């Protein structure tokens, strides 16, 4: 099976969908002549031309809105944000137009499109460029929110996203674009709403997604050395969420830790804890813990950033705590 | 051009004023009686629809925000007349006029204001979110200025698919300062999209006159910065508005060049029903009334076309009856059923929420 980087898997997904459907186009800053700020669109301009691989000025509200307006006409836009931090500039378009147009037009219009790009902290980018946006977008009915951590998942889920008839927020990771993995040559799609068990275990359930996945897997490895067997569930799809997979695992392990990028207050992590306590209260042997950013803006200084980020060591500490092994 | 909040030059004290009459005759030169009667009827339908809305609001039948178009009707009528099948109108939250002009059913429009299932958008949108796709009404947007990039996206789709359609994007003078307007226009200019941007300058951004919200008097001075053509004029008649809108629509369709048009107009009601409009003097409103396109059309019909008073009364009475019937229909129409709230959230069908823990009782 070919080994690809995540960036190549993303590129291949877009390429295949653009070959398959002329309504699909890619729009964003530097996606064309520059081949993508992170090279996710390498070669697409050459193959599809400037009509379908469209460089935009720095106007997130402008091109997000153009994508929405085009999707309402039946096209299937992929809008790339150079980072999801810049999606904040287009937040109104996503919140008030993309997510609501089907509803407020009583189904006269739909918005079949994908917003994609890297999400969450990378390395020493400071507070404005180190934020996790699933916590904002997963709050909004009408949207779907996907986060990927392997080339296989990236390709299969992005193809699904492009074919989905709803607006999909597709979250990647700047630090993980070079992560390699097997990707089948034949076509495959991964349905939304299905978590993937990235590591089997029976003592503690670790729920994670996106950039949290390598942290959780490393922590599980460290825990295994202490005879603590962790089951690592990669949600992949945050909205819709595979609640059944979470609950099935928790009913087996009776303990859960949520590992993710983003702040603790008001986010997806707290939502997962709420679901677990309601659906598996009697199965729990310990409080569910979250390992995420400290509740602070991200500093530039490397030592301070490392203190704030969720680390395998912090995740391990939480795993020990829920297992009452200190 | 005059100070934006001042009345046009043609203002005169009465319809009998010779200067007023001369201008009126010049404006209606070459217009057939049939066409002018049609324009009058169409404008009056909007006005009577909205007057009925105001009454229903006062009686507590309509809630939320209700922004009336009274005084600006000629714009919607002229727009309808320059559109070809497939062309799109995208507007803000003062949109009843466009709906009626484009042929939306008054019953459906009134039912929407009443929050009823038979409404234009099922009672889901209310006054600020009118959409009627098959008649070319593409919104209906209530966050000021956020429809400008969306409208540019419609025009982009026309360019992409070659459907030949033109998008006409309307906004108020109060919108021109907000960011999405700039970004959407920048994109439309750089992509050479088949679109016409029309600012309906009705003098007030809610209660604030334009001179306090814009550093220059002429909104179209911005057109050069986007590579657009531009036009700017007082809206005093349907025919003149139609002629000049048609030029811009033609330019969009044939050359793919956007135009920014500033239409100087006036709304006779407050910003919304809760606004008594105390920020302006009665004298100002009276001056503008002399140039109300609907009033001028009526005067033209009486003086130039010699239409008998009883014929005009008959037209009015028929329209009032039509609109009364629409509001009667809306009043009696049933509200949306409880399960309507699950519809059109997601493309796949009824949606009950993402978690089993928070779904309403009785649904899976």
Automatic annotation (TrEMBL), chain A:
It comes from the Bacteria. Residues 4-179 form the Transketolase-like pyrimidine-binding domain. Signal peptide: none annotated. Coiled coil: none annotated. It holds the Pfam family Transket_pyr. Its EC number is 1.2.4.1. One of its GO terms (molecular function) is pyruvate dehydrogenase (acetyl-transferring) activity. CDD domains: TPP_PYR_E1-PDHc-beta_like. This is Pyruvate dehydrogenase complex E1 component subunit beta. The lineage of its organism: Bacteria, Pseudomonadati, Myxococcota, Polyangia, Nannocystales.
Automatic annotation (TrEMBL), chain B:
SUPFAM superfamilies: Thiamin diphosphate-binding fold (THDP-binding) (SSF52518). The keyword Protease does not apply. Pfam families: E1_dh. It comes from the Bacteria. InterPro entries: DH_E1, PDH_E1_Alpha_Subunit, THDP-binding. Signal peptide: none annotated. Its cofactor is thiamine diphosphate. Residues 42-338 form the Dehydrogenase E1 component domain. Keywords: Oxidoreductase, Pyruvate, Thiamine pyrophosphate. This is Pyruvate dehydrogenase (Acetyl-transferring) E1 component subunit alpha. It comes from Nannocystis pusilla. The lineage of its organism: Bacteria, Pseudomonadati, Myxococcota, Polyangia, Nannocystales.
């Amino acid at each position: 099976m070919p080994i690809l980087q995540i960036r190549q898997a993303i590129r291949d997904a877009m390429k295949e969908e653009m070959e398959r459907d002329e309504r699909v186009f890619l729009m964003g800053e530097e996606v064309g002549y520059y081949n993508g700020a992170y090279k996710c669109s390498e070669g697409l301009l050459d193959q599809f031309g400037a009509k379908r691989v469209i460089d935009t000025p720095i106007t997130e509200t402008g091109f997000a809105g153009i994508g929405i307006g085009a999707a309402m006409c039946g096209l299937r836009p992929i809008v790339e944000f150079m980072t999801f931090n810049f999606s904040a500039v287009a937040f109104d378009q996503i919140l008030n137009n993309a997510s609501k147009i089907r509803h407020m037009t009583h189904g006269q219009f739909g918005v079949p499109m994908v917003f994609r790009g890297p999400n969450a902290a990378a390395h020493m980018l400071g507070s404005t460029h180190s934020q996790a946006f699933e916590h904002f977008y997963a709050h909004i009915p009408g949207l779907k929110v996907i986060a990927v951590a392997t080339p296989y998942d990236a390709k299969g889920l992005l193809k699904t996203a492009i074919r989905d008839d709803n607006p999909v927020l597709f979250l990647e990771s700047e630090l993980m674009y070079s992560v390699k993995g097997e990707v089948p040559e034949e076509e495959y799609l991964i349905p939304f709403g299905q978590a993937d068990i990235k590591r089997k275990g029976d003592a503690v359930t670790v729920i994670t997604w996106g950039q949290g996945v390598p942290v959780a897997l490393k922590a599980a490895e460290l825990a295994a050395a202490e005879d603590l067997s962790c089951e690592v569930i990669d949600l992949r799809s945050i909205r819709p969420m595979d609640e059944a997979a979470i609950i099935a695992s928790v009913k087996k392990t009776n303990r859960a830790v949520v590992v993710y990028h983003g702040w603790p207050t008001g986010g997806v992590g707290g939502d997962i804890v709420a679901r677990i306590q309601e659906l598996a209260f009697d199965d729990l042997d310990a409080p569910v813990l979250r390992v995420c950013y400290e509740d602070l803006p991200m500093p530039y200084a490397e030592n301070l950033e490392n203190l704030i980020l969720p680390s395998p060591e912090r995740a391990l500490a939480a795993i020990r705590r829920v297992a009452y092994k200190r | 051009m005059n100070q934006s909040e001042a009345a046009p030059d043609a203002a005169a004290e009465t319809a009998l004023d010779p200067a007023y009459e001369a201008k009126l005759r010049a404006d209606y030169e070459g217009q057939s009686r049939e066409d002018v009667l049609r324009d009058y009827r169409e404008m009056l339908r909007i006005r009577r629809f909205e007057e009925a809305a105001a009454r229903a609001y006062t009686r507590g039948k309509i809630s939320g925000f209700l922004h009336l178009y009274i005084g600006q009707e000629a714009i919607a009528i002229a727009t309808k007349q320059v559109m070809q099948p497939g062309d799109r109108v995208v507007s803000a939250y003062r949109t009843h006029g466009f709906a009626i002009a484009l042929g939306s059913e008054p019953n459906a429009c009134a039912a929407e204001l009443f929050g009823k299932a038979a409404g234009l958008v099922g009672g889901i949108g209310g006054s600020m979110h009118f959409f009627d796709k098959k008649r070319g009404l593409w919104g209906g947007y209530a966050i000021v200025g956020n429809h400008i990039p969306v409208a540019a996206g419609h025009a982009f789709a026309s360019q992409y698919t070659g459907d030949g359609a033109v998008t006409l994007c309307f906004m108020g003078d109060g919108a021109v300062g907000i960011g999405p307007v700039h970004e959407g226009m920048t994109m439309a200019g750089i992509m050479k999209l088949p679109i016409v941007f029309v600012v309906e300058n009705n003098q007030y951004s809610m209660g604030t006159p334009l001179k306090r919200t814009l550093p220059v008097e002429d909104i179209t001075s911005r057109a050069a910065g986007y590579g657009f053509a531009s036009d700017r004029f007082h809206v005093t008649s349907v025919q003149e508005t139609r002629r000049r809108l048609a030029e811009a629509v033609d330019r969009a369709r044939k050359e793919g060049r956007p135009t920014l048009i500033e239409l100087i107009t006036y709304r006779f009601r407050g910003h919304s029903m809760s606004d008594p409009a105390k920020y302006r003097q009665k004298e100002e409103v009276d001056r503008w009334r002399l140039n109300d396109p609907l009033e001028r059309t009526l005067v033209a019909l009486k003086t130039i076309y010699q239409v008998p008073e009883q014929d005009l009364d008959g037209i009015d009475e028929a329209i009032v009856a039509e609109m009364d019937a629409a509001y009667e229909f809306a009043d009696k129409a049933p509200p949306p059923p409880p399960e309507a709230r699950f519809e059109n959230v997601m493309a796949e069908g009824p949606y009950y929420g993402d978690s089993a823990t928070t779904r309403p009782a009785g649904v899976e």
